[in-house]
Amino acid sequence: MSQQDKIALVTGGSRGIGRTVALKLAVQGARVYVNFVSRSEAAEETVAMIEKLGGQGEIIKFDVADYSATQEAVKDLVSNDGPVDILVNNAGITRDNLIARMKEDEWDQVMDTNLKGTFNCCKAVIKQMMKKRWGRIINISSVVGFSGNSGQVNYSAAKAGMSGLTKSLAREFASRKVTVNCVAPGYIITEMTEAISDDAKQKMLSEIPMGTLGVPEDVAAAVAFLASDEANYITGQTIHVNGGMYM
Questions:
Q1: What is the CB neighbour count within 10 angstroms for residue 235?
Q2: Which of 78, 71, 86 is closest to 179 using CA atoms?
Q3: Rg (the chain; Cα; Å)
Q4: Phi, psi for residue 236 in degrees, rounded to 5
């Protein structure tokens, strides 16, 4: 699944799933722009890892929740390096709380980054993809966008919204050979899951038929497939990477 000479933009690409996706696409030949908003050291480390593997990477700083900043950053990227071929909307945050205690700001922050941020990035690249008559947009959703999760009404709503956004965009741009799909991870081993208690991990494992947590490489493999020519006839779909937790 070669991505030679393709330009890829991975939001939230400095660590976790985003970092692994960036590495996967770079190994396949894409020139990968690693987006970050606050952790420049982590983003630079990701690019160093890409270069160590013989790939090409650049860091690009902007807040996906900021419409104007997103449009300007992508405009500069295109001016310097050409149109974006592959967009992976991975940037996301959590502000978990029961709705009875959830502050309005906790709702707004999650919706602005996770859902509006996806819109902002799609808006920034779609015209160039349509003009080129080739493009791949892969949105990183979550199992909780389909199953729900107590204490995550904001996160679940935003991730569910990404599914509707994906289907609508897929219909709008299919005739221009631009595909839009989702990957919905389940419980994946990242910094977030490593920090939780052993009791919580056991509860998570009890909900997964395969009996193990996933790894970022599982998600990256699905993203790489959807970004490839092999996925030409797949659009508007969600690939669930969750060990059977949600079917």
A1: 21
A2: 86
A3: 17
A4: 75, 20
Q: Is residue 247 part of a domain?
A: no
Given this model, what pLDDT does residue 53 score?
A: 96
Asked if residue 166 lies in contact with residue 88, where contact means CB atoms within 8 angstroms, the answer is no
The conformational region for residue 219 under phi > 0 = left, psi -120 to 50 = alpha, else beta, is alpha
3-state secondary structure of 33: strand
Biggest CA-to-CA distance, the chain: 52
119 contacts 165 by C-beta, under 8 angstroms: yes
Residue 81 belongs to domain with CATH number: 3.40.50.720
Which residues belong to the active site? 155
Band the pLDDT of 200: cuts 50, 70, 90: confident
Classify residue 211 as exposed, middle or buried by CB count within 10 Å of its CB (0-12, 13-18, 19+): exposed
Domain that holds residue 160: 7-241
Task: Decide if 65 is inside a domain.
Answer: yes
Stretch (H or E) spanning 66: none
| E strand segments, the chain | 7-10, 31-36, 56-61, 86-89, 135-140, 178-185, 238-241
Write the Ramachandran bin of 141: left for phi over 0, alpha for psi from -120 to 50, otherwise beta: beta
Cα four-point dihedral sign 92, 221, 184, 127: positive
pTM of the model: 0.96
Q: Answer with the residue of higher pLDDT: 18 or 39.
A: 18
Number of domains in the chain: 1
* 1 inside domain: no
